[in-house]
User: Which sequence fits this backbone?
């Protein structure tokens, strides 16, 4: 049995909720895979390293990097690594933005989505996001305060990178976000459950397009794609936000939901659309890996180019073939249902966690610590 402590801030943010949700819901199933979990919210707990594997949620140390400096934080992480195999769970939104400074001190560095070309982490990307870099280079978009580049300096450290699970493994039904937020104040695991109600993809859908999104981001390179899409769709779809009930009802009656990148490639909107049986239109996502794989171009989603030159034509072609669009929406919903509401999906998650743990334990001791 692997005795694992999970150091976390709890259900304090949507990303943290998505990280913790499947671990808690599948806690007893994980025990059958010899994974015993104990959740700790105090980084100074005396028993923190009384385990053979330590999961660390990346935001646990967020307040300390600036306050105490890298060296002090890394010294603490190094001391923990002397006692247990550390698996760092980066719960940030995008495939970029690694906390490269922790790589030498952890046995595995897990992230919800990673760049397929891992060598890209060894060169600076403007805004630390591959699409921010693209819009900076190709469209001349610059941020008022550009993010400091973060790069991996030692090629061998790239071997520690692993895809964990994306934010879809949580509850995005009508009251799901409310229940997950309540879990932070009321630690009752029964609050957490996967949705079972799906609107069939072939239900009546009088609305052609929906695109409800925020466009106010502090970084121009992040906001650019959404603002351009809003301009291009100005005559076809409203983009202002609605109440939760209204926008879920809208998606249940919509054929095609346009879902651009935000701070990350994947948004909660994607999974809400799948629950509602609408087809997703996303920017090309072939640059990244994630799990479960729900974003297959032409199979479970429709895609357009990052330069948006084909956006309107892709929409026109998709809407001209409603049968094909319904098939894509149905395939996405089937894959999503299999991930969150089937014994096979439950077992696949447990096996994934077990594999991440086994790989971390097998990491050579010489690869850990300051080289």
Assistant:
């Amino acid at each position: 049995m692997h005795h694992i402590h999970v150091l976390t801030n709890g259900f304090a943010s949507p990303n943290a909720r998505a990280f913790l949700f499947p671990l808690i819901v599948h806690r007893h199933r994980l025990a059958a895979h010899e994974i015993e979990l104990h959740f700790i919210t105090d980084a100074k707990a005396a028993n923190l390293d009384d385990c053979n594997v330590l999961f660390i949620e990346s935001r646990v140390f967020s307040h300390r990097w600036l306050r105490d400096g890298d060296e002090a934080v890394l010294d603490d992480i190094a001391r923990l690594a002397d006692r247990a195999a550390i698996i760092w769970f980066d719960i940030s939104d995008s495939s970029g933005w690694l906390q490269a400074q922790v790589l030498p001190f952890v046995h595995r560095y897990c992230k919800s989505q990673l760049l397929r070309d891992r060598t890209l982490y060894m060169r600076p990307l403007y805004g630390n996001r591959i699409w921010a870099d693209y819009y900076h280079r190709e469209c001349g978009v610059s941020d008022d305060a550009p993010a400091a580049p973060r790069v991996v300096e030692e090629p061998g450290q790239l071997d520690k990178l692993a895809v964990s699970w994306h934010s879809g493994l949580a509850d995005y039904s009508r009251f799901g976000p409310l229940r997950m937020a309540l879990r932070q104040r009321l630690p009752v695991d029964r609050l957490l459950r996967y949705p079972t109600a799906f609107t069939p993809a072939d239900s009546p859908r009088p609305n052609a397009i929906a695109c409800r999104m925020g466009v106010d981001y502090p970084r121009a390179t992040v906001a650019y794609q959404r603002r351009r899409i809003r301009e291009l769709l100005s005559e076809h779809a409203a983009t202002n936000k609605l109440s939760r009930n209204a926008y879920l009802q809208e998606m249940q009656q919509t054929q095609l939901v346009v879902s651009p990148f935000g701070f990350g490639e994947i948004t909660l909107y994607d999974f809400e659309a799948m629950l509602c049986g609408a087809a997703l239109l996303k920017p090309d996502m072939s640059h990244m890996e994630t799990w479960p794989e729900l974003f297959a171009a032409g199979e479970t989603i429709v895609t357009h180019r990052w330069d948006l030159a084909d956006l309107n034509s892709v929409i026109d072609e998709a809407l001209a073939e409603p049968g094909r669009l319904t098939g894509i929406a149905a395939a996405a919903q089937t894959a999503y249902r299999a991930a969150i509401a089937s014994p096979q999906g439950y077992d696949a998650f447990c096996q994934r966690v077990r594999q991440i743990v086994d790989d971390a334990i097998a990491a050579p001791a010489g690869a850990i610590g300051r080289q």
Summary: The mean pLDDT is 95. The radius of gyration is 21 Å. The longest strand covers residues 2-7. The chain is about 35% helix and 15% strand.
